[in-house]
Amino acid sequence: MKSPVVKRSIVVAGHKTSVSLEEAFWNGMKEISGLRNMTLSELVGEIDSNRQQGNLSSAIRLFVLDYFRSRANPAVPTDVRPQQVDTRQQA
């Protein structure tokens, strides 16, 4: 099943920008921001300020993936922020 890309405008650090994401990622962002008691703009601002490279849409996708991956893996401590989780395989 193909998830269409949805483009939305959002204010990040006082500046309006547009972000294109699949609906599943928007839903994941809404869930995460609700659990953290923050607005979607605040969460996107946090992701934006912590990204090392790449565009904002890619950084958001990786953040959402890491967030839910860390919640699905009971070996990952709950106090670890998703972007700090090392997902590389151990040798």
List keywords for this structure.
91 residues; alpha+beta; two-stranded antiparallel ribbon; 3 helices; 2 strands; 18% strand; globular; disordered C terminus
Give a short overview:
The chain has 91 residues and is an alpha+beta fold. 45% of the residues lie in helices and 18% in strands.
Strand order of the largest sheet: 1-2
Low-pLDDT runs:
83-91
Write down how many β-strands occur, each being a DSSP E stretch of 2 or more residues: 2
Helix content: 40-55%
Largest beta-sheet characterization: 2 strands, antiparallel
What's the arrangement of secondary structure elements?
Blueprint (H helix, E strand, L loop, with lengths): L4 E8 L2 E8 H13 L4 H11 L5 H17 L19
Antiparallel strand pairs: 1-2
Notes on the structure:
This protein has 91 residues and is α+β, with helices and mostly antiparallel strands. It is 45% helix and 18% strand. It has helices at residues 23-35, 40-50, 56-72, and strands spanning 5-12, 15-22. The protein has a two-stranded antiparallel sheet with strand order 1-2. A hairpin with a 2-residue loop joins β1 and β2 (15-22).
